[in-house]
Amino acid sequence: METGIETAFTPWASLGGGVLIGLSAVMVMALFGRIAGIAGIAQGAMALPGAAKDRDWRWAFLAGLIVAPLAVMALGGAVAQAVPDNLGGMALAGLLVGTGTALGSGCTSGHGVCGLARLSGRSLAAVATFMAAGFATVFVLRHILGGA
Amino acid sequence: MRALWGLLSGLVFGLGLVISGMADPAKVLNFLDLAGTWDPSLAFVMGGATLTAFIGYRLVWRRKAPVLDQSFDIPRSRTIDRPLLVGAALFGIGWGIGGFCPGPAFTALPLMAPGTLVFLPAMLAGLWLGARIKAGGSLQDRGKIRRSAAS
């Protein structure tokens, strides 16, 4: 896996984008009475076992996510994105993210944003665990195996 | 009507991901790289999003029911069990390898990077696999710390 390329520290854009994410979570609660966890929304859209049954808005929500970068570009904005090109690694990563969020009942948005906003101890435990695992994984890949 | 509002909610979420930088795996991986090219921006994303949701949820919950549905459906489980922790750990490892969590994997789709086109189908397959494992309950049955098999 490649070592890090510097990215600019963007506190204001990140804070503003974060507020929009929070606003969307509030919209989903106000409109549909649900937690705006993307893993859960995708599971519901795919009608997986144990997932919620209201599929109509979930498909539309995922479509909204996909349309967002196109809207930014249509308005003349740039969408910065550097995706790792180690395809074997990306396949493994995708499988782990999907399996893990399904088993753990949530992702960065479900446990992170929505769970912490509900002051859920269960979500706090999940966030602490996936953050620690993320920090450890990048440390091993970049500084032990990568030798950076 | 529900679909239209769903689309709008997703669009706001996606715009937030793009504007905040959370949609860029390079930024996410740098946030996780404390010992290297650390970029603390994502702490501001999480802070802004969580604080907004914290305030907004409390205003919304003054209502008896959501606008377009019968009732609020909020997770009730309080058990910190093995599937929660094993799942979160697996997710964190995958996040650290690819720099994508589920939301950004969707917003990345129209840019069609090869890594995205591999990650997204693998993630959907993983969601299916994880749902099956959870429905089967194998993790709970084998666990030594067997608490009330909630959720």
Automatic annotation (TrEMBL), chain A:
<keyword id="KW-0812">Transmembrane</keyword>
<feature type="transmembrane region" description="Helical">
    <location>
        <begin position="124"/>
        <end position="145"/>
    </location>
</feature>
<keyword id="KW-1003">Cell membrane</keyword>
<protein>
    <submittedName>
        <fullName>YeeE/YedE family protein</fullName>
    </submittedName>
</protein>
<keyword id="KW-1133">Transmembrane helix</keyword>
<feature type="transmembrane region" description="Helical">
    <location>
        <begin position="92"/>
        <end position="117"/>
    </location>
</feature>
<feature type="transmembrane region" description="Helical">
    <location>
        <begin position="12"/>
        <end position="36"/>
    </location>
</feature>
<comment type="similarity">
    <text>Belongs to the TsuA/YedE (TC 9.B.102) family.</text>
</comment>
<keyword id="KW-0813">Transport</keyword>
<dbReference type="InterPro" id="IPR007272">
    <property type="entry name" value="Sulf_transp_TsuA/YedE"/>
</dbReference>
<feature type="transmembrane region" description="Helical">
    <location>
        <begin position="57"/>
        <end position="80"/>
    </location>
</feature>
<keyword id="KW-0472">Membrane</keyword>
<keyword id="KW-0997">Cell inner membrane</keyword>
Automatic annotation (TrEMBL), chain B:
<feature type="transmembrane region" description="Helical">
    <location>
        <begin position="82"/>
        <end position="105"/>
    </location>
</feature>
<dbReference type="Pfam" id="PF20398">
    <property type="entry name" value="DUF6691"/>
</dbReference>
<keyword id="KW-0812">Transmembrane</keyword>
<dbReference type="InterPro" id="IPR046513">
    <property type="entry name" value="DUF6691"/>
</dbReference>
<feature type="transmembrane region" description="Helical">
    <location>
        <begin position="41"/>
        <end position="61"/>
    </location>
</feature>
<keyword id="KW-1133">Transmembrane helix</keyword>
<protein>
    <submittedName>
        <fullName>DUF6691 family protein</fullName>
    </submittedName>
</protein>
<keyword id="KW-0472">Membrane</keyword>
<feature type="transmembrane region" description="Helical">
    <location>
        <begin position="111"/>
        <end position="131"/>
    </location>
</feature>
